[in-house]
Design brief:
CATH architecture: Alpha-Beta Barrel
Number of strands: 12
Distance between the termini: 30 Å
CATH class: Alpha Beta
Strand order of the largest sheet: 1-4-5-6-7-10-11-12
Number of domains: 1
Helix content: 25-40%
Shape: globular
Largest sheet: 8 strands, parallel, barrel
Structural class: alpha/beta
CATH topology: TIM Barrel
CATH superfamily: Aldolase class I
Amino acid sequence: MSMDVIPAIDLLEGRCVRLYQGDYERSQVFSENPVDVAKQWVEQGATRLHLVDLDGAKAGKVVNLKAIEAIAQAISVPIEIGGGLRDRSSVEQVFNLGVQWAILGTVAVEQPQLVQELCQEFPEQIIIGIDARNGKVATRGWLETSEVLATQLAVRMQELGAAAIIYTDIHRDGTLSGPNIEALRELANAISIPIIASGGVSSVTDLLSLLALEPQGVTGAIIGRALYTGDILLQEALRAIGPGRIQDIPPNLGFSSFA
């Protein structure tokens, strides 16, 4: 068994940051140059990157265009991005920048018809980001919580043609408190499209607990703060649960500049 290990790069005012439980007032800057960050993750073996336009999530439109384009041009692995993608033009815009997958969140709740249209126009390129607070879906950059249950939304999005689901437990995001295994198992039992786990991953042990869900459809893990603090080394994560291309990478690479 293996899973994708996907480093997260959260963009706020052009910088690489991490939030605590989605709180914009509790952000920590890890780098002024997200392109350098992206390059280093790829050099260390990442086969995919997860970008979040935090400004875009709040504004309702893509904001960090220059940083997104620069990252896409600088690396050779595919990129997924979410944050502010709430109309067709925004989705097309990020695809034109070189992004492989667009992550839709708010519109999945508010405009399911648009999701269906985008899934038809861009098959296998639309991922639904389900960010849950106590089992209910949060929208608009996590600033609002709906009455929609995460599992119900996932089932509906699968019916509309979504390529995958990224599930984030907001209470665990940025906390290094471990993923919500029970919620992920419940979600995996409800749908058959791939699920990518996000939020709370703090150790290789957490990753191994996610790997146990791989047969049920949890195919990847997004890691944010733990990589930047050094709680997890990307190479160790890849050796533990990744697809195996790590053997070609020198063993002494580190990311000590963030710790």
